[in-house]
Design goal:
344 residues, alpha/beta, 6-stranded mixed beta sheet, 13 strands
Length: 344
């Protein structure tokens, strides 16, 4: 069986601008795959190609077993898509939008009502089902958009920065829904995000994209391990500080940069299990341990290692969106974004 998402040497140019530059991608069945990168890195352009909203200018891609160019209609029938800033009619209710989406997929009226009720319950919007969407909060709209993308039980779900601009509680609620969906239905999810914590929390594997190219790929833990060993930051009584600093450096290697002059930072090549060895060294000289903190490498460290810079704004919420050229239609004219895929 072919993988749910495959791409090889995928490229997309807008005039002289190369937005996606040879992306190779393989997503396994039933996994949550994180696509991490800053604004303008090529995340959304890649997703638009994979969801048939934009034709590649080079390479190829297959989604749900279908070529995104030659079998575009079959791809659309097999996927669900929740893109940034979903264009939801504010005058319609949640129930009305779900029934409309079901109709577009050829689902009968009775089944449409059943699925609509089920999906509203799943995303916690049952009580708001008959309210006009114009009165929904940002988090409620995102959850409704997720429900709309699931009406036809897609095999593959694309979530393009689904929590951008949401408050922390709404973000966590959406994370839980994605986890539940993946665990209960085995839905394959490709999640693009600029939030490091989001990728770390949800994704079994991640790929970091920068300037249109994938620069690092693997599980969050394996990528962190590649960056380096964890650092133990400790403080001991002043009388034994110099002796402890010298002995720890002899035992564990050169001291790492510490947050304050009074602190001692030790690299633990053996991982967190080596903490006990540090304590034993301190006991040998009678040093009194005042505090101790273990700092594991983060995805921000991984990104910095791969790109040479930090992921600016990674922990901010706001009105971020990729500043990429608006794609042209087949006739060469500009067209607006389609915000939700999966429509036959």
């Amino acid at each position: 069986m072919s993988l749910p998402i495959q791409a090889a040497d995928l490229r997309r140019s807008f005039g002289d601008v190369l937005a996606v530059d040879g992306v190779d991608l393989e997503v396994n069945e039933g996994e949550i795959f994180g696509f991490l990168g800053p604004n303008g890195a090529g995340k959304s352009t890649t997703v638009r190609m994979l969801t048939t909203l934009l034709r590649p200018t080079g390479g190829w891609a297959r989604v749900a077993g279908y070529d995104v160019v030659t079998d575009a209609d079959m791809v659309r029938r097999s996927i669900g898509v929740a893109l940034q800033d979903a264009a939801i009619d504010p005058l319609m209710t949640g129930n009305e939008l779900l029934r409309l989406q079901a109709t577009l997929h050829g689902i009968g009226r009775t089944e449409a009502r059943r699925r609509g009720a089920e999906l509203l319950e799943r995303v916690g919007l049952t009580a708001a089902g008959d309210r006009r969407v114009g009165g929904y909060s940002g988090g409620m709209r995102r959850r409704l958009d997720l429900a709309l993308s699931l009406v036809h039980s897609p095999a593959v779900l694309f979530l393009d920065e689904p929590t951008t601009g949401l408050d922390p509680m709404s973000r966590i609620a959406l994370w839980e829904e994605v986890r539940s969906l993946n665990a209960e239905r085995g839905t394959t999810v490709l999640l693009t995000t600029q939030y490091l914590e989001e990728a770390d929390q949800l994704a079994g594997r991640i790929a970091i994209i920068d300037r249109g190219r994938i620069v690092s790929e693997g599980t969050p833990q394996s990528l962190k391990t590649q960056v380096g060993a964890p650092t133990l930051v400790l403080r001991v009584d002043a009388a034994h500080r110099d002796a402890a600093r010298t002995l720890l450096a002899e035992t564990f290697g050169a001291e790492r940069p510490a947050p304050t002059p009074e602190a001692i930072a030790v690299g633990l090549d053996g991982g967190a299990g080596a903490v006990a060895d540090v304590v034993r060294v301190l006991d040998e000289i009678g040093a009194e341990l005042e505090s101790m903190e273990l700092h594991e490498p983060s995805l921000d460290d991984v990104f910095a290692e791969a790109t040479g810079r930090r992921l600016e704004g990674a922990e901010e919420s706001g009105e971020d969106s990729e500043e990429e050229p608006e794609p042209a239609g087949d006739d060469g004219t500009r067209r607006g974004r389609r915000r939700r895929g999966g429509t036959p």
